[in-house]
Amino acid sequence: MKTFYATAVEALSVTEQKLRMQSHIDPVLSRALELVQLGWQEKYVHTELFPYAHRGNEIIIHHGVLMWDSRVVVSATLRDHEDYTGMVKKSLSLGFVWWPNIDKDIERALRNGWGC
Asked: Who's near 74: CB < 8 A, 6+ residues apart?
């Protein structure tokens, strides 16, 4: 996991500290972090957390950042910020990032000329 994480963070062109900070201030990711730590013991999970809960034990915390398999879970703030568009494109092509509805977001972005 350590190698995957280091490679993913390097590909993201963002510091580990910034990833961790954004994960903790993002309302959905911060709650997912809590639930991962608790082992998803809550019976009722808010709909925004379904994609994370669905992956249950496959999502782990590494250095304070959520990871699914070998992919860093990116906060909405980072993936929506224009400065990170290139970072996300590169990371997507290498399979280093994940977030709920990533496939739909990529399709929408491509339709809107993201790949140009």
From this structure: 12, 19, 88, 97, 98, 99
